[in-house]
Amino acid sequence: MRNAFRIAGRELRSGMEGFRVFLACLALGVAAIAAVGSVASSLTTGLAEDGAVILGGDAALRMAHRDITPKQRNWLNRSAEVSRVLYLRSMAHADDSGRRVLVEMKMVDDAYPLYGTLEIRPTNSNKNLFDKRDGVWGAVIDTALLGRLKIKLGERIRIGDTAYEIRGTILREPDRISGARAIQLGPRFIGPAASIEESGLIRPGSLVWYFYRIRLTGDTSLKAWKKSLSGAFPEAPWTVQDRTNASPVIKLFIDRSTLLLTLIGLTTLLIGGVGISNAVRDFLSKKVQTIATLKCVGASSDLIFRIYLVQVMSMATIGIGIGLLLGALIPVAIADLLSSVLPIASRIDLYWKPLALAASFGILTALSFSVWPIARACEVPAATLFRGASGRFRGMPRMPFVIVTAILLASLAIIAIETAHSRIISIWFVGGTIAAVLLFTVASALVARCAKLAGHVGGPGVRLALANMHRPGAPMGNIVLSLGLGLTVLVTVALTETNLDAQITKSLPKSAPGYFFIDIHNNQTDKFREIAQKFPGFRELRLTPMLRGRVIRLNGAAANPENVAENGRWILRGDRGITWAGALPKNETVIAGSWWPADYSGPPLVSVAVNTARVLRLSIGDTITFNILGRKVTGTIANLRDVSWGTLRMNFIFIFSPGPLNGAPQTHVATVRTEWAEGIDIGQTISEAFPNVTTVRVRDVLLTVNEFLSKLGLALRLTAGIAIIAGTLVLAGSILGGQRRRLHDSVVLKVLGATRRRVLGIQILEFALLGVVTALIASVFGSIAAWAVVTQVMRLQFAFDPVTVVVTTIIATGLSATLGLSGTWYILGQKAAGILRNE
Hints:
The chain is of the alpha+beta class. Strand 17 and strand 18 (631-642) form a beta hairpin.
């Protein structure tokens, strides 16, 4: 090793030409992975450090539909400081303008907030903000609500049966994301919890969430307090959160986004690995004389391998260092952008774990794609090297190097799987990557074969371009693999996003109801049905009773979320909507078991959505126990249903048979479809007739979802663009590596009478054909991947978008032709005489 380091150092001091692409590919891939990991760490650290402020307390208890008992409240008051907060949705009415707007209500007590500060404008109105003055309660709202209701500060609005005076607008709400729904459908309204009884909004079964925020006092630890709570109320139906996981929804979103972006970063690094292999091979081809000389003076193949491995890894260290530096700085550059998109503050710092992970990926990639070409070059006899100055190395290296390469690649796959937030998705990614590499390799070989068979088609220019695609040493395989992988990622992301957009903006509005109505009381259903059916343009009404319950036992055993698959844990982590029905819901199909008779009156039976049954490992005859309003209800699974979730109709995971839940305190939910007409709004009519009923326009929901998906899609497209850049770098490296051969070809053509224009046309045609072929292959593979994501993961219908394929083809053709043209300019500028004399 001493000799290897000494000789390697001498060669490094003399210059390392041709490693620009090597450095760029490695730095780009490492930077992508390091940046994604650093951004995720900065967000999760902010989430953890501000946990108490985000949650609103050291811990929080959540219940749906009903409040805790006086005994439970007394225990909480004795153990810590307590703040009670209610969340619900309702319609806010402006008496003067007649406008009605859906609001997200947050009703607080005098102890709120336990952590942080509610900042409002004007700042001098914080004192006695929510007190009742002249018979009117105070409230604060999002600024957007002023514009929607056409009101000003100091004016009044009505929610339910209660009037509120608007005394300020919200600047900063410390616990805004605690208790928030996955989708915010309206602006925030904050009022006093003491006023909720007067509003008439809360009746048995109303859709209300009760939160009890806890601030620990004295020396009580969070762990000890939670243990005491569990001991005092072992079967309480509430869900407990604490400051260590203040917002599971945001945390899950960060984890899943990080996973997707990291996988695309790994694809970038894989593409860069092809460039690394090309760069090492081209570098060694220029060291033919040096390798031959070393062998002639007694150097062994192992010594030569060490010499060039030291040189390559020295350059890899520089590339990895550049990538780590970029990855560490990117979170600083986009901190303001993150704060505008996510409701948490990132913590700018140097996070060693994602940087170390990115460095590990970089080192393994550099080794995986360098060992093979170095070992293959070192195995060639010295005499052969002297005779074959072209430096093309063929054949396989010795078996130990093949085994080492396989181990390195396997290590890359293992680390990718073990460090990912979802092992299932990462396993699919690794398997898909292996399949993609094999498919692209086979496809490039088939294209080369077809080019050879079509060698006599067209004129001389076309025949030469086709010959360049299948000749020995042609860059076909490298270009198709590297650029094709990047384009496949781009096509997959683009087609997935296009299908989601089409589903949200075109398909869903046609099949989805126009309105959802929530919290319809039992004594209002007849009048509601009458008003809806008489409304101009009425088409369909579905009125369904609903309760919320929590799954507590599966076949008699405790329903622990950790005991089921990751994609099914959400079912057990909160309250789920439950209904009952005599007849099978429209557009649903029983695929196992049988539906009960319409007049069934026996023991409780339950119907379960088939996907839920699979993830919970349930089958016909199994039992499932719910806690519904404090009572345990156990049902036997009678059938499994296929549910069309993509219609946005009122679908349920669990449906009980008639009987056991009919008498429970309940509300109804309704979906209504009407013909759209300017100035005709059934939501306005229902709100006037039933102030307690919450109206949700499907159009508003779709706009909110589409806005969120657009932001996520932009991040995915930008990261996919990095993969395209990596493929472009590899393409550029292939062109640079083949310049020596192309120089000889152009000289021969010039001697035979070809003009500069003719030579230029041949080169552009060759690379344009490569771009078109690569784009077509990538479009096929990307379309298949997008189909799998849309139909198998998202359970939506897939529609092929030819525009995406056309754009991909234009991008690939333009890149290939442009880079080919840039390399050809240098070749055309060389004099033929000098080259011929050297030959």
